[in-house]
Specification:
It is a single chain. By secondary structure, this protein is mostly helical. Helix 1 runs antiparallel to helix 2. The radius of gyration is 21 Å and the shape is elongated. 1% of the residues are buried.
Length: 77
């Protein structure tokens, strides 16, 4: 069975793969090194944005649950 990964997991795997690339020859740094470095930065920004969204969602969910408990409207079936 094929393992299903989240978008965040795929981004992290790809980021790790790019970070593990060894040295790039100096004469190729502009054509290879700079694009790899930019790709690493772009992936890190995407992962940070996902983390921020997850944090906002968790906080919003916690606020709703706290409000429901305070109002006595929580569903307890």
């Amino acid at each position: 069975m094929e393992e299903r990964l989240t978008i965040k997991q795929v981004l992290i795997i790809t980021l790790d793969m790019l970070r593990s690339i060894g040295t790039v020859p100096l004469e190729e740094s502009e054509h290879i090194g700079v694009p790899i470095s930019n790709a690493i930065k772009n992936l890190a920004v995407c992962i940070d944005a996902i983390n921020e969204d997850e944090k906002r969602i968790a906080e919003a969910t916690e606020q709703v649950e706290t409000k429901e408990e305070a109002d006595g409207n929580a569903d307890h079936e």
